[in-house]
Design brief:
This protein has 419 residues and is an alpha/beta fold. The chain has two domains: 192 residues, Periplasmic binding protein-like II (D-Maltodextrin-Binding Protein, domain 2); 191 residues, D-Maltodextrin-Binding Protein, domain 2, CATH 3.40.190. Helix content is 43%, strand content 14%. Strands 1, 2, 3, 4, 7 and 13 form a six-stranded mixed β-sheet that branches. Strands 8, 9, 10, 11, 12 and 14 form a six-stranded mixed β-sheet that branches. Helix 16 packs antiparallel against helix 17. The longest helix has 23 residues. It is globular. The termini are far apart. The relative contact order is 0.16.
């Protein structure tokens, strides 16, 4: 019996070892001539990324790219672990630009600096300025932008014609115009503004009002008069029944012709296309009709190099060759509803017929794209996503909401400083 038990344990150990290696093998290169590329594109955009990689691999490069799409939470939880272990580190990684500063401070990234001289076209003038600027930190280049994805505003063409016929004359819809439209439309059971993802709605308005996330790059500055003013504007519009209400699904309201204006990400465009309404797209709601004061909340997926104990110069050069190829061949990514960060896309006629292209069509629109790049942005995002519209829907006071937001982020910052 004892021999059988030992035999069983040996067999089980061998099976477990095989199972683990087979589960993790997909994230590693099958050969030294392969670039392992981790990214969080697991939805429909993942299909477009795979198409893009297939197109590149068909050019028969010396180093082909192996696509590894992981869920965002899983990917971000793995990164510190694998970098600190020094094993199984991918050759190329996509991260949201807001993570770069913290990753640099925690020793998770290598700089592109030693390699960029060999790729002179990977430079600022060839990319959307806001996306390029935020890939650099403390004088070193850590990120090269794939895209700049933005929350803008969808609108129902028929409802705009009926309730706000001149609101889009300048392609800027102000909160005042939304309020005026809502006072007319609510009599017919039509909502003027859908309350969607709170984080970009709040930050876009906060930015328009001149709000800053930090003054010293470390400590948050959220609990202030500007934040109160921004939240109170949405609260007042909700109380006046200009906006959607607690418990309502703004997407369903929009798709069923019950909502005029619908702020959402450009990445939702393909889904909205499946609806039966006539719609267009424009900038986020603005407090001013001055185009030079516009703020459209944005983020960026950036190519980064996770720190490796022994980085291969040849493979890293091959990695930048792929990044440079993507710069010139990003139409497939645009077809996923994204705005590529490479300005080469603006010369593509097919792209210029895509709805999201207006955001890159001129310098004024490009300057409106705003990345709220704060080292501890993740803690702020967690709070805004978790407590969202609590103050707008009267579940707590604005003062308590902001005090808790300030203290929650400050506690996380202090904890990191103590480590």
């Amino acid at each position: 019996m004892k021999k059988l038990r030992v035999l069983f344990m040996l067999t089980f150990s061998l099976f477990l070892s095989f199972f683990i290696s087979s589960k993790t093998d997909f994230v590693h290169a099958a050969s030294n001539k392969q670039i392992v590329f981790w990214n969080p594109f697991t939805g429909p955009d993942g299909t477009n990324m795979q198409k893009l990689i297939n197109q590149y691999n068909k050019t028969n490069p010396e180093y082909k790219v192996k696509n590894v799409s992981l869920t965002e939470s899983d990917m971000y939880s793995k990164i510190p672990t694998i970098v600190n272990s020094g094993k199984g580190i991918p050759d190329l990684q996509i991260v949201h630009v807001e993570r770069i500063k913290d990753y640099v401070h925690n020793g998770l990234l290598d700089s592109y600096d030693p390699y960029l001289s060999q790729f002179p076209q990977i430079k600022g003038k060839n990319y959307v300025p806001e996306a390029w600027k935020n890939g650099k930190y403390e004088g070193h280049r850590y990120g090269v932008p794939l895209d700049i994805h933005t929350t803008f505003m969808y609108y129902n063409k028929d409802l705009v014609k009926k309730y706000a016929p001149h609101a889009l004359d300048d392609n800027i819809v102000t909160f005042k115009e939304i309020e005026e439209a809502g006072k007319k439309s609510q009599k017919d059971g039509i909502t003027a503004l859908g309350l969607t993802w709170w984080k970009p709605l709040f930050l876009s308005l906060y930015g328009q009002m001149g709000g800053k996330l930090t003054k010293d790059g470390r400590n948050p500055t959220f609990n202030n008069a500007t934040s109160k003013k921004a939240i109170n504007l949405y609260k007042r519009l909700r109380e006046e029944k200009i906006t959607s209400q607690d418990g309502q699904d703004p997407m369903q309201l929009f798709l069923t012709g019950k909502d005029i204006f619908f702020p959402e990400g450009i990445w939702m465009n393909n889904q909205i296309k499946e609806g039966k309404i006539k719609y267009g797209v424009t900038n986020m709601p603005q407090i001013s009709s001055n185009p030079n004061k516009m703020v459209n909340w944005s983020s960026s997926h950036q190519f980064v190099l996770l720190k490796q104990p022994k980085r291969s110069k040849a493979k890293t050069k091959a990695t930048l060759k792929f990044i440079n190829w993507v710069r010139l061949h990003s139409l497939t990514w645009a077809e996923a509803g994204q705005n590529p960060a490479s300005l080469a896309i603006t010369k593509n006629a097919k792209y210029n017929n895509m709805q999201q292209s207006f955001l890159l069509s001129n310098k004024t629109e490009q300057n409106s794209l705003t990345i709220f790049d704060y080292r501890y942005n993740g803690y702020l995002a967690d709070y805004l996503d978790r407590y969202a519209y609590d103050a707008v829907f009267n579940k707590t006071s604005i003062s308590k909401y902001l005090k808790k937001m300030q203290n929650t982020v400050q506690d996380e910052v202090d904890a990191q400083m103590a480590d």
